[in-house]
Amino acid sequence: MRGRRETLSGGDLREIRSSDDVVRVRQEVRARAQALGFSLVDQTKIVTAASELARNALDYGGGGTVRFVEVRNGARAGLRLEFEDQGPGIPDIDQALRDGFTTGRGLGLGLGGARRLSNEFELVSQPGQGTRVTITRWK
Amino acid sequence: MNRIPILRLGKALLVTIQVDMHDELALALEEDLTQKIWATGARGVLIDISALEVVDSFIGRMLHAIASVSRVLDAETVVVGMRPAVAITLVELGLELPGIRTALDVERGMALLSRRDDEGAEGDIERR
Q1: Is residue A63 part of a domain?
Q2: Among A72, A85, B39, B71, which residue has the least CB neighbours within 10 Å?
Q3: Do B22 and A22 touch (CB under 8 A)?
């Protein structure tokens, strides 16, 4: 896609329908990051980013899914997480990424914070058609 | 529903968060603590998060809410025991916990609270 050779494996899909699912997503991200040999700080960063995005999917998207993909770029291993919901979507993405902006009861740090905690970040959203946020953290 | 126990420690209340928090539990803790501060006249609240491997903005919001309500009831909140990896992540996340004191462990948190209490008492005498 961007001239980089990546191989994908896994691609397991999990539902995010409740607060308990958010907890389960955190636990699975932790286990996978650990298995890939991430440092403790890197594990904590991707688990925290995942927690923000899972909660966004639940609170703003009315629930959604996350796909876990283990990626490889040469010798480098990474963990990619694709969060998707069929919620109302985000009309102004720049505004949504700004710290302190929230339409809900949060602190408005979710999206911007998740972007800072990831090595790669992609947000695709259309009003009325839901939101997909993809983050990747490399070891 | 499970609830997080609140222990009395001198003039302070100690809460040790050991489980992965979800919404209902966080709300229950906020209510229980508020009630307990009122009932005991506690001057401080220590929240021990040394067991937490992740502090996201949801937990940050809960800590902020607890600290705000406690302050209105004249009790100071000290968050203790944050792990180093959590501290690094929090800063990058942009969560700086404004208005919340922190200490490395429960002992230092207690010392911080009793110092505040002593200063308060001296202030009262000087004003007379």
Answers
A1: yes
A2: B39
A3: yes
